[in-house]
Structure to design on (763 residues):
């Protein structure tokens, strides 16, 4: 429900304010009104509304600009903008891709905290992990942020018995927490260990709790279902970058569209194909045939020495560096 | 001659009719009920607070529920072995064992289904499997074959029971709930030649059907693991490895049950030392077969020591799981083989001990198949709370797992209270036939 009606308290007028503003207002607010066709005052609420005297201009369904008191506006946080089938289908003519430049990472974990904050991931869990890697004895250690790889041959999607995790036409692998039965087969199948499970009640803020669930925001998380990095399609729809990309002060993450052949970290934009070619990009566990959508640029000519990242590494991780 | 036959029939019927629980039977049942109730309370807590009450976390996302599930599916395979394989290959001596095997199969498959629902994060969405089921997922295959196996097993239990139900109706005072139950289940059975013919035909068809289905349930269960990339699971050996292990644990379960029923119900005349001797030989064969697949499963990757397998195998051979690993190999396979290779070891009591060892070893073996692999992911376990890197089941998990085992035993216990565990009619037919042969 957005805004309807043009009666009684609503005064039609021909204000010249920009149409766009009205639409935006209309999207964010709804009128506590129904039954425009009845003779009753549609604004006679169950409880008397104290008028604020402040008028808000809205665009009615008839295309008329109307003015109502702010008291009649009610915030609608759970307004689903997309249907489930649209969310499962994905955006047309897009092929999302991510490039992670390991030469720039110093384990600041800003990506992680931004992601956890925005998705209200359960404390202790995270969708992005920054791993301390060392490929072989005596080779140089480096920091490797890992997101969901959004594989083109996703093992998780293959094994899901109910189509709760799915591959979209724009390349994203998403989860429908309204359908997930919590069997955790996808977690066993994912070689990147990227999936997390809501073992208990997820710690959500009151404002998010009652929101309508969306596969694109992955919010609100639900008890007994699987969660993971979703490449923030809600941000992409708004023309913005995923939270990890914009949160990283070192520009480690590049996000973009393979169809446009461009990736950006906010400050810099590159041709995806050239960047991968020039910097010898690679993907994780190529031999498994999962065909990830996340490309890594090797940690050469680094911006920071590996040791800089040790400050932010958890004590318990220090002995656990992978070789 | 006629007279002695009638007497023999009366004696057999008297020996094999189900008996009321004695004092020990009542205590046994009460203990099982208590364990089940504790398990039910633990499950209530799990429903209330979520899987958080378990010690499973993001890395070890499958724990003893799943290993218990694999154990149940494994032990249920014995129904097809004793009933179907023996029947089709015309092994006559297995008659007194068929019903034991079949009730173990049914109770195990029931609790396999229950425990897999217990493992689900959203059990109330179970219907999604039918609403949105995708045939490419091994879980759907499992749902299909386990359901099929359950119904075939129930029929293989029920149809051979029909002639016995007639005997039970005759011997039970009319009006009691037992009598009503028997009548409800079998009053249509008159015992005509035509009915026996149809019954035999049905059993034959079911016996042929159940073999591929039994192979499927455990192969598909192994594929829940083998279709992933993880070290320890990523194995082409898994289907055969699981099936050989399943036959072994099932046979171990049957010899254990044989001994207990024989002792408790004084069935020495029907379950004889010969049965233990022969089952003992079969168990040796199955244990050797399972050992062979274990060699394939562990030594071939250990020869290469690929990086991804290395940590996993070292943990099993010499690391923190080594105690349990060698226990499962020694107690679950090698010691029973050593016991049963000798004629003296195939007397009832040593066979029983070997059977118990096999079952316990098999339970831990399933734990070893599930958990250690999950603790060795490809990417290092970092950036997570410390307790994500270990796994030891919480009390709720233990209570539910033990409750499910007790529940399976409870089904068997009640079954034995209500129905004859050794088929009466078939025993009578066989004994009279052998008498007639002796007379000729």
């Amino acid at each position: 429900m957005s805004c309807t009606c043009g009666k009684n308290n609503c005064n039609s007028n021909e204000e010249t304010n920009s149409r766009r503003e009205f639409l935006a207002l209309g999207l964010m607010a709804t009128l506590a009104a129904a039954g425009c066709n009845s003779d009753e005052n549609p604004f006679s609420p169950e409880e008397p509304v104290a008028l604020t005297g402040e008028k808000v201009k809205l665009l009615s369904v008839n295309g008329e600009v109307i003015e109502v008191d702010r008291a009649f506006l009610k915030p609608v946080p759970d307004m689903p903008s997309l249907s489930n089938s649209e969310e499962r289908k994905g955006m047309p003519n897009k092929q999302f891709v991510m490039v992670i430049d390991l030469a720039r990472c110093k384990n600041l974990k800003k990506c992680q905290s931004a992601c956890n904050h925005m998705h209200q991931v359960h404390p202790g869990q995270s969708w992005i992990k920054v791993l301390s890697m060392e490929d072989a004895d005596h080779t140089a250690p480096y920091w490797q942020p890992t997101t969901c790889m959004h594989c083109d041959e996703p093992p998780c999607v293959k094994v899901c018995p109910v189509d709760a995790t799915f591959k979209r036409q724009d390349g994203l692998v998403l989860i429908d927490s309204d359908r997930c039965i919590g069997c955790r087969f996808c977690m066993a199948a994912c070689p990147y260990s990227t999936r997390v499970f809501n073992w208990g009640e997820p710690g959500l803020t009151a404002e998010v709790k009652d929101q309508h669930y969306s596969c694109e925001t992955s919010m609100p998380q639900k008890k007994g279902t699987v969660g993971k990095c979703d490449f923030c399609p809600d941000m992409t729809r708004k023309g913005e970058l995923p939270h990890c990309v914009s949160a990283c002060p070192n520009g480690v993450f590049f996000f973009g569209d393979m169809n446009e052949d461009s990736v950006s970290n906010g400050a810099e934009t590159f041709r995806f194909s050239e960047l991968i070619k020039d910097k010898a990009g690679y993907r994780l566990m190529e031999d498994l045939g999962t065909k990830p959508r996340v490309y890594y640029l090797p940690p050469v000519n680094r911006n920071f020495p590996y040791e800089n990242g040790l400050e932010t590494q958890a004590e318990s991780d220090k002995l656990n560096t992978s070789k | 001659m006629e007279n002695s036959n009638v007497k023999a029939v009366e004696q057999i019927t008297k020996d094999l009719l189900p008996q009321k629980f004695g004092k020990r039977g009542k205590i046994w049942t009460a203990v099982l009920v208590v364990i089940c109730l504790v398990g039910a309370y633990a499950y209530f807590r799990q429903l209330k607070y979520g899987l958080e009450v378990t010690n499973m976390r993001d890395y070890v996302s499958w724990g003893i529920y799943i290993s218990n599930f694999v154990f149940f599916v494994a032990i249920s395979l014995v129904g097809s072995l004793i009933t179907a394989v023996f029947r089709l290959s015309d092994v006559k001596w297995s008659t007194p064992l068929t019903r034991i095997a079949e009730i173990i199969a049914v109770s195990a498959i029931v609790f396999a289904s229950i425990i897999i629902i217990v493992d689900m994060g959203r059990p109330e969405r179970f219907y999604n499997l039918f609403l949105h089921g995708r045939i490419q997922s091994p879980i759907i295959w499992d749902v299909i074959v386990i359901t099929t196996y359950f119904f075939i097993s129930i029929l293989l239990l029920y149809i051979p029971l029909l002639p016995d139900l007639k005997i039970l109706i005759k011997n039970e005072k009319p009006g009691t709930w037992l009598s009503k139950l028997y009548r409800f289940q079998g009053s249509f059975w008159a015992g005509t030649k035509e009915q026996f013919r149809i019954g035999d035909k049905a059993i034959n068809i079911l016996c042929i059907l159940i073999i591929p289905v039994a192979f499927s349930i455990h192969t598909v269960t192994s594929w829940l693991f083998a279709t992933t990339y993880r070290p320890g699971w990523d194995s082409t050996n898994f289907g055969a490895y699981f099936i050989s292990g399943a036959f072994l644990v099932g046979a171990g379960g049957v010899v254990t049950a044989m001994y207990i029923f024989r002792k408790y119900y004084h069935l020495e005349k029907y379950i004889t030392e010969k049965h233990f001797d022969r089952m003992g030989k079969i168990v040796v064969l199955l244990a050797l077969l399972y050992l062979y697949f274990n060699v394939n499963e562990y030594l071939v990757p250990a020869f290469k020591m690929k990086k991804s397998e290395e940590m996993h195998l070292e943990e099993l051979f010499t690391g923190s799981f080594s105690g349990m690993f060698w226990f499962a190999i020694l107690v679950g396979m090698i010691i029973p083989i050593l016991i049963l290779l000798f004629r003296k070891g195939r007397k009832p009591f040593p066979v029983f001990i070997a059977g118990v060892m096999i079952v316990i070893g098999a339970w831990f073996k399933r734990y070893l198949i599930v958990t250690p692999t999950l603790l060795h992911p490809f990417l290092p376990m970092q950036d997570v709370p410390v307790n994500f890197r270990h796994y030891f089941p919480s009390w709720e998990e233990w209570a539910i797992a033990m409750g499910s085992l007790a529940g399976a035993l409870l089904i068997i216990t009640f079954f034995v209270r209500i129905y004859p565990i050794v088929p009466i009619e078939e025993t009578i037919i066989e004994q009279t036939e052998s008498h007639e042969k002796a007379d000729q």
Summary: Chain B has 17 helices and no strands. Residues 18-423 of chain B form a domain with the Formate dehydrogenase/DMSO reductase fold fold (CATH 1.20.1630.10). The mean pLDDT of chain B is 93.
